[in-house]
From TrEMBL, chains A, B:
<dbReference type="GO" id="GO:0046474">
    <property type="term" value="P:glycerophospholipid biosynthetic process"/>
</dbReference>
<keyword id="KW-0444">Lipid biosynthesis</keyword>
<dbReference type="GO" id="GO:0046872">
    <property type="term" value="F:metal ion binding"/>
</dbReference>
<dbReference type="Pfam" id="PF01884">
    <property type="entry name" value="PcrB"/>
</dbReference>
<dbReference type="GO" id="GO:0120536">
    <property type="term" value="F:heptaprenylglyceryl phosphate synthase activity"/>
</dbReference>
<dbReference type="InterPro" id="IPR038597">
    <property type="entry name" value="GGGP/HepGP_synthase_sf"/>
</dbReference>
<keyword id="KW-0460">Magnesium</keyword>
<keyword id="KW-1208">Phospholipid metabolism</keyword>
<keyword id="KW-0808">Transferase</keyword>
<dbReference type="InterPro" id="IPR039074">
    <property type="entry name" value="GGGP/HepGP_synthase_I"/>
</dbReference>
<protein>
    <submittedName>
        <fullName>Putative glycerol-1-phosphate prenyltransferase</fullName>
    </submittedName>
</protein>
<keyword id="KW-0443">Lipid metabolism</keyword>
<keyword id="KW-0479">Metal-binding</keyword>
<dbReference type="InterPro" id="IPR008205">
    <property type="entry name" value="GGGP_HepGP_synthase"/>
</dbReference>
<keyword id="KW-0594">Phospholipid biosynthesis</keyword>
Amino acid sequence: MNHSFLSSLKHMFKLDPNRPITENQIEQLCHTETGAIIVGGTLGVTYEDSQALLKQIRMHGKIAIQEISNLQAIVPGFDYYFIPLVVNAQDPKWILNVHHEALKRYGEWVNWNQVFVEGYIILNEDSSVAKLTKSKVPTELEDVLAYARIVDQMLRLPILYVEYSGKYGNPDWLKAIQQIVEYSQIFYGGGIHSYEKAVEMSQYAHTIIVGNLIYEDFPTALKTVPVKGVSYTQIEE
Amino acid sequence: MNHSFLSSLKHMFKLDPNRPITENQIEQLCHTETGAIIVGGTLGVTYEDSQALLKQIRMHGKIAIQEISNLQAIVPGFDYYFIPLVVNAQDPKWILNVHHEALKRYGEWVNWNQVFVEGYIILNEDSSVAKLTKSKVPTELEDVLAYARIVDQMLRLPILYVEYSGKYGNPDWLKAIQQIVEYSQIFYGGGIHSYEKAVEMSQYAHTIIVGNLIYEDFPTALKTVPVKGVSYTQIEE
């Protein structure tokens, strides 16, 4: 696995194939300094919609990553594939059964150099992903840290994805996670509705992911990206 | 993680703290060329019984490994700890919830250099462990191989434990597993009731584990260990 690629990522946009976006908007996202564009969502993700997004991202020369949420929508040709593993899911289907089904069908053909497993901790109980996976959403920091240790120390997954999905998270919890994580790259997603929030969470996460804001306030979404040669931290100082 | 330790293991005995064994028998096991002695079982494992076994193994200078099956029975002082992760379990408690509970309680104190995660595939549906974890036991080779890929390629766990628990497995399946596994050390356990069976499975597994036979036919159990300087393969040729 290409860990140096991962560590170069400070910011990513996530496009949901099930939500409307114009070609012009995709072009604008691709012309920012964001590290890559993720294509993926929880509900209603199809092959055709995912492929359409890939084609447009390709056209503008940006790195394109598919986050796999259902088997039927896996599109060949992405630069990388992220495979979510929800460590606080309680429905066995969404813990390892989907992976089993995927590897039964495609296991022989996977190029593992293109694949990164994301250890997801779902932290917003009202989100679609929490409901779908029947996630047991922690209410205490010590529970969150134990999940982080499963991802980072026990399984040594390349990515620990702290997912607040639509809700802005607790920066103190992120800070506590950062302090114990030794191996995994920390991704943060959820409620990044301004540049300041991106700056705040980037103190504790290696990579900030902006999704909903693209569909809710496009101009502000564009502004969450750090400017070339200037990291969030430098701006903040 | 000390992978060179793992790769040195051709054979191990597994002692169940819940089953009777004499001090003299433990001494005899320790004086064989077995690589290490695992202490662990599925039901009725207590701290006291596990500690008693550790003391006796220590007395004879053998490497002692605890395979953790319940939190109350974790005994400090073992050389290594194996943490099972049953990839075909269907009860979320036995997939990752027990690990979460363990890391919530002990996460801060774990020395990860002593710990190896075992990706278990349970292949005997009549075994206690299959019933406890509600394992979905594969009946087709392609399902077994998909689980093997989860352990080896997706999660890159140090150990892939092919567990027939009490029943002798299908050597053709083991051979097929060996052919696709690239990273994990393959452990085989189940129905090794003779030296010949140990030889047969050692063609396809890195490490053979003998458990039940210790309690059922002690003299034959002793004879499953390869002799010093002579690997199974050499003997077979």
